[in-house]
Design a protein that fits this description.
alpha/beta; Rossmann fold; 6-stranded mixed beta sheet; 3-stranded antiparallel beta sheet; 27% strand
């Protein structure tokens, strides 16, 4: 379980998160919606430990020294090396976790539907293949918590469906998954809960993707009002 207790994150005078309180559990997928600048990516970075709350705290069950090993974070940017192959990329990132055996890297690449023997440089991959490899990079140290920032960005419909199916599979295996997305259709049937953010505040949290529909309606009301 992960708990956010009155978490606020300031960048100078700008509040990216404002007194956010939320709770997340294993074996559940949480879809996070909101307009650009709503605080969604900052939320993932705070949970991942890449940004410290200005006030409030993030509480994890289990020993804190194991936290780095328990979390897998996929940023909006792929963070891959274009001049390397898939297995070469994972060898580099695996070394950061002390992983030396190719077996784990090969298993992670296969888990996302890619060929570990493919010698093509990642710079020649399609966007869908890059997204898959980014997820493989995150999976090879077997994290319990997955934080995915816009995993469907720039994907065609088929690739997006395949990524959604993989997220569902990982959720069913017991992982806690937080997905930031603007595309509610891709997580319909995958997300157990949805959270709607606006201007750093958590406005709604409910089952399914109802928060996304509420957000779309809110945007429409604001557009009509303007």
């Amino acid at each position: 379980m992960v708990q956010l207790q009155q978490v606020t994150k300031l960048f100078g005078r700008f509040a990216a998160l404002r007194s956010v309180t939320a709770e997340f559990s294993s074996g559940r997928c949480y879809a996070i919606f909101g307009e650009n600048g709503a605080g969604k990516s900052t939320l993932l970075r705070v949970i991942a430990g890449l940004a410290r709350p200005t006030s409030g705290k993030v509480v994890f069950d289990g020993p804190p020294e194991m936290l780095r090993q328990r979390i897998g974070y996929v940023a909006h940017a792929s963070m891959l090396y274009d001049e390397l192959s898939a297995i070469e990329n994972l060898r580099y990132f695996g070394a950061l976790y002390g992983i030396k055996e190719d077996q784990k890297m090969v298993a992670a690449i296969r888990a996302v539907g890619l060929d570990p023997d493919l010698e093509r440089h990642v710079g020649d991959y399609s966007q869908g293949m890059r997204q898959r490899l980014s997820l493989a990079r995150t999976l090879m140290h077997e994290p319990e918590i997955l934080l995915l920032d816009e995993p469907f960005s720039n994907l065609d419909v088929t690739s997006a469906r395949e990524i959604a199916a993989l997220i569902k599979k990982l959720r069913d295996e017991g992982k806690m998954i937080l997905v930031v997305t603007h595309q509610a259709a891709h997580v319909d049937g995958v997300a157990d809960y949805s959270l709607l953010f606006s201007q750093g505040q958590l406005l709604r949290s409910e089952s399914g993707i109802g928060a996304a529909r509420d957000g779309a309606a809110k945007d429409g009301d604001e557009g009509a009002a303007s």
